[in-house]
Amino acid sequence: MTGKTAPARPQTLYEKLWDAHLVAEDNGEAILYIDLHMLHEVTSPQAFSRLKALGRPLRRPDLTLAMADHCVPTIRQELGTPGIEDTASRLQIEALSRNSAEFGVEHYTLGDLRNGIVHVVGPELGRTLPGMTIVCGDSHTSTHGAFGALAFGIGTSEIEHVMATQAIRQRKSKNLQIIVNGQLQEGITAKDLALKLISVLGVDGATDHVIEYSGEAISTLSMEGRMTLCNMSIEAGARAGLIAPDETTFAYLKQRMPADAWAAHLPGWRALQTDEDALFDRTVTLNASDVGPVVSWGINPAQSIAIDAQIPDPRDQADPRVRAVMERALGYMQLAPGTPIAGTAIDRVFIGSCTNGRIEDLRAAAIILKGRKVHGSVKAIVVPGSGLVRQAAEDEGLDKIFMDAGFEWRQPGCSMCAAMNSDRLSPGERCASTSNRNFENRQGPAGRTHLMSPAMATAAAITGQITDFRTLI
Ligand SMILES: CC(C)[C@H](C(=O)O)[C@@H](O)C(=O)O
Ligand code: SF4
Fold first, then answer.
1. How far is the C-alpha of 464 from the C-alpha of 202, rounded, in Å?
2. Interatomic CA distance for residues 201 and 320, integer angstroms
3. pLDDT in tens, 383-392
4. Which helix (H) or strand (E) is 15 found in, with range?
5. Counting atoms of ligand 2 from 1, which one is nearest the CA of 418?
6. Residue 322 CA: distances (Å) to CA of 301, 312, 314
């Protein structure tokens, strides 16, 4: 012992979270301890079966939380699983309940107020906390990074691994810093910012990176907005998205956990910041004031443009591969280059998903909708992200505003985000959607999706076409 200690190297938040959970490391491969493992019905059954076949116990049922969201119907949930018409969905949801009971996992069944989309429920129940490592067999686990937790999606074999060991094998990602300076304009949301960022970065622009978002525009976002932004990190290829916890985070959590536990955590949470002079592999800077309402026109989220822009022309692209992707998108979406995106007629509106199914999203929609009607040619549904969101909305009378306008007021679930249940587009239908993916067939075979914010989807519902919501306020 020399008595000397190496000077502490400045670290990013990602590096701090990594080090705090590092169990072992060898040749770049690490084992990370996992603080919270969330399960849903689609990606957990095989892992449970393997565990059973091997006769292994679930290592930490107390750090595991299960709920059905993808396949659940968004009507008649009070009937429980017997009310599910689709047999495959019913079996999957029943299997989750059975497995949860067998392994002692906390599980919210259909119709339980606490049930909903896993990425909405974890945070709102105070299970998602700053400084945690959180995994789930679902790519949008990145949502939880909004709290300064290292949260990422995992595959089925990894689910089994976490179930058995409460740890996971990982390689360290690179670190991408995204600084958003200035303030977002009135009514412009984290969704517009996310779509704008993805259109700048590209769908694989953040591959192999963990993003940390910072800057004035980020610090003024609500927790709901931060979750929307971190949720969509994955659509730029990122492993995870992170926002350092601050007073907004602490205030959100204060309402969701026992006061003594909250106070005990606080000093540790405050230390979850990127050190000054810490090094990132890359930095991207954006001015919030340059962001207006953004809408996707194509078949990936990077194919997004400002509401006052024209559909891009593949002939302007030098790269033949980019041109080919654009041509395919235009063909699938049945859009002509050079035409304004505003004015595109739509058939369906979907407000919901783990991106935009929170109370703030429903409020943003209801403010515009109040006293107006859904256009005669449009079928519109609103699907709260959880039972608690639904209840909060009803307490505020938002359900009435939606129903009076002609929206269907549904029960919680992923619904039309991924069409893994009976909520889906018919072939050829065009949808204004607050979800996060506009891939071909995503919302139903041959369905066409335009991603946008809740305010923009509401404006589309009212006018029957893609519309700048600011013309309605
Ligand atoms: C079903 C699930 C594995 C999938 C995901 O990982 O994201 C789904 O949630 C999605 O949004 O496409
Ligand atoms: S709401 Fe959509 S994106 Fe989110 S978990 Fe469900 S299917 Fe995936």
1. 29
2. 19
3. 999 999 999 9
4. helix 13-21
5. 7
6. 14, 12, 8
Cα–ligand 1 centroid distance for 139 (angstroms): 6
User: For ligand 1, is residue 212 a contact (CB within 6 Å)?
Assistant: no
Q: Is 414 annotated as a binding residue?
A: yes
213 vs 288: CA distance, rounded Å: 13
- Write down all domains in the chain, each with its CATH number in brackets: 13-171 (3.30.499.10), 174-246+264-290 (3.40.1060.10), 294-472 (3.30.499.10)
Q: Sign (positive/negative) of CA torsion 59, 61, 62, 67? A: positive
* Strands of the 106-108 sheet, one edge to the other: 106-108, 64-67, 36-39, 133-136, 150-153
Among 67, 70, 138, 239, residue to substitute to test ligand 1 (most atoms within 8 Å of Cβ): 138
Task: Using the mean position of ligand 1's atoms as its centre, give its distance from the Cα of residue 410 in Å.
Answer: 21
Task: Write phi, then psi, for 386 (nearest 5 degrees).
Answer: -155, 170
| pLDDT one-digit tens code per residue, 16-73 | 999 999 999 999 899 999 999 999 999 999 999 999 999 999 999 999 999 999 999 9
**What distance in Å separates the CA atoms of residue 161 and residue 82, rounded to the nearest whole number?**
32
- Nearest ligand to the CA of 421 is 2
E strand segments, 131-214: 133-136, 150-153, 167-171, 174-181, 209-214
| Rg (alpha carbons) of the chain, rounded to whole number | 22
Residues with Cβ within 6 A of ligand 2?
69-70, 117, 119, 138, 140, 353-354, 414, 417-418, 435-436
Would you say the pTM of this structure is higher than 0.90?
yes
Q: What is the Å distance from ligand 1's center to 473 Cα?
A: 35
230 annotated as ligand-binding: no
What pLDDT, in 10s, does the model give residues 207-217? 999 999 999 99
Q: Which of 473, 406, 457, 470 is nearest to 195 (CA)?
A: 457
Angle formed by the axes of helices 247-254 and 223-231, nearest 10°: 110
Q: Are 282 and 176 in contact (CB under 8 A)?
A: yes
Residue 239 pLDDT more than 50? yes
Q: Which atom belonging to ligand 2 lies closest to the Cα atom of 40?
A: 5
pLDDT band at 360 (very low <50, low <70, confident <90, very high): very high
